[in-house]
Fold this protein.
Amino acid sequence: MRLISVFLLHFAFLGILYSAYRIYTEQPVLPSEKDLSIVWDGYHYTNIKNDGYSYNPARQSNVAFFPGFPYLWKYSGLNAFGISLINLLLFLTGLFFLVREFAIRQRDALLFLSLPSLFFMFVPYSEALFFAASSILLIGL
């Protein structure tokens, strides 16, 4: 229980820092629904979710993206914020079980949670689902 409390306090602290930065730079604290679902890979995942896979040799295609995440998003019926929350929960669950199973020190886990590249775990991308599945695999091995 203590580990969960430390993780939650850490995320609350990072959330406060993020909010202060966004307010200081005069941007909205939360990105818009459109910003989450139409930039970078989010655009492709949104297209797969809404229209399925398509291939047209004259333009960029979405066939290189694995189907697990877009179909999870489609069948959950959530918007971009909702699937981002699911991604956050998938990531934290996978990390919690890894920390518990492999006896990772809290300090190391908090350092890992502070990496800027973990931003991809909280947006509508497939990385959190992949991390959770990989965590299950590692624990199973």
About this structure: The mean pLDDT is 85. DSSP finds seven helices and no strands in the chain. Residues 32-140 form one domain.
